[in-house]
Design brief:
This protein has 4 domains: 9-123, no CATH class; 136-210 and 217-343, Rossmann fold, CATH 3.40.50.300; 349-450, Helicase, Ruva Protein, domain 3 (Orthogonal Bundle); 491-651, 3-Layer(aba) Sandwich (Rossmann fold). By secondary structure, the chain is α/β, with parallel strands linked by helices. It is 48% helix and 11% strand. The protein contains 32 helices and 17 strands. It holds the Pfam family AAA_lid_9. Residues 171-348, 495-636 form the AAA+ ATPase domain.
Amino acid sequence: GNKGGGRGLSWQFNQNRRARDVELPFTPGLKKVLSRAAKLADAFDSEPIRSEHLMLALLEYDPLGNEGEGTGATVDEDGYAKGALAVILRMDDMDSDTFSASEFCRTLVMDMSGKKDSAELVTGTPGGSDIPTLKECGTDLTELAENGELDEVYGRDDEVKACLRTLVRRRKNNPCLMGEPGVGKTAIAEGIAQILAAPKMLAKMDEIFDRDDDGNFVNQAEVERVKALAKLCPPRLRSHRVVSLELASLVAGTKYRGEFEERLQSIVQEVTDDKSQPTILFIDEIHTLVGAGSAEGGIDAANLLKPALARGKLQVIGATTISEYRKHIEKDAALERRLQPTMVKEPTVEQTIDILGNVAAKYGKFHNVKYTRGAVEAAAKLSERYINDRFLPDKAIDLLDEAGAVVQMESPFDVTGAVKVPEERYPEVTEHTIARVVSEWTNVPVGKLESKETDRLLALETELTLRVKGQGRAVRSVSRAVRRSRSGLRDQTRPVASFLFCGPTGVGKTELCKTLAENYYGSEKDMVRIDMSEYMEKHSVSRLTGPPPGYIGYEEGGQLTEAVRRAPHSLVLLDELEKAHGDVLNILLQIMEDGTLTDGKGRTVCFKNAILVMTSNVGSRRILQVAKERAASRGGVAEKVNGSFEVNGSSDPAPEPERRKKKKVRREESDDEDFSDELHAAATYAE
């Protein structure tokens, strides 16, 4: 329909078999009905005027001329509605006193339009504003803390206090949490919200906590925790609240230029105008502000917040990763100087064990299981050892959560849910369950994780001899080197072992690699084989780590780095090393000394769980002779690489006194190492 319609309707009819066009003008009553229907359509955010809008407009029309528009039902509205419904819906039961035709129509129209509130319909107000409020696009973390819906924060006392000190500053009082994904940046913001909520909770203790018959609090431990948090709250922040702003909610639904800016300005205005309860905005992934909502010739969200931040009327807690901070925020000097960076480092294994010990009870209650102390320690240690592409404590907590789900699914339970299992009969989550989950995530066999590595490593030489015949000296050297490195007498950031196998074709170099991969990692498939004859040219070396940005194949990654990144627990075989270009040795030197390699995308690939093996078809003397004939630079690098090998075909045994001195130095260097693997027997045997 035409919302402004005033010209009238054009009717065509037959009279005495002659067609004539007659222009019928709108009556005042019809104009009122159409105008009312247009307002109702606007209230429902409907572009066209539909039949339900016309129906409701007719219900509110008073033929007696009383101005009752928008005030609810008119004098004879229900009578007109009953008559209309009797014809339209063919309902005969219209004379009942309990039946309200007007309410029936309103409910029908609201259901068709999806409206939940009928007040807007009755009054006829034009739909209200489309600008969302802070309550609609934000989450009040302080309110969640008062209701006990936030998890407690452990092991981040220093970071929380640093943020509180920044918040009470006179200028530049906007902390920005910087850290890798999963280290606990959002948890720190939730911890601040709990501290700000603690004084409010103390003011209404009797409403929140129950008391027993003697007048004591039932949950005395929780009361003491709230009191401890209240002591940390600065007096200046006792009336503040923390609201998590969801930037996606602001951007969603914006179609026209200026809508996003209007929404964000409305939020900022709402925050700055509220003097009774000052609000601190928590913006997770704050780097998304830079460029958010900007169109061609427009301004982004960061520029909209700068004036309020500069005047000190708006306080913000941001959270982002180090790389995103440098990529987006550091480039905007005006925004950077208004934020105070606070580093959030990854916790150590010992700190992670303490964190898991505190959160295990909550996860156990959720899954109806019990976590043993061994399971908590295994989750921290195994996640640190085998899951290299994520960070503590996130990956360790995920291990606990997944293991609890596994035990819950496998334990017998009542289908009806009528029988409640007492807590003392909950099934246990043990190291075995944690090991199973790790094996599913990393493809490392469960048996290898469960068995004592001491027995497995002591039997390594016997297992290798069963398949590799006639190479007793090489097998003994490889076994000793692996045992020595796994016993802790090595830098834990370096590869498990580095070998150089020299000899003619067919003597068993590759077979020894396959056997070692099967016995150490569990399968022959856990081996990455690269033919170094494909890397004879200087420019081909970049294929190992991937081309730099701007070159073809940049997104695909490197042949070596991508393979190890996907399977970090594998044996890396570099076949025919002498055929590769000299620059390859520079890469190998970094792997053997640091245990890491950076690919073309800037990602760091860890080799600390890999065994590095290089083979050559010529003798070691020939390799050294060729190296001298090459460029001087390659000769220098080759000498360094040669000294990093665990086993080298050209190296002669050192005198016994020198060997004992080296062992003594290694023991002194490893006094501070964690001998959690209990491989002292293997270390003794390796001597």
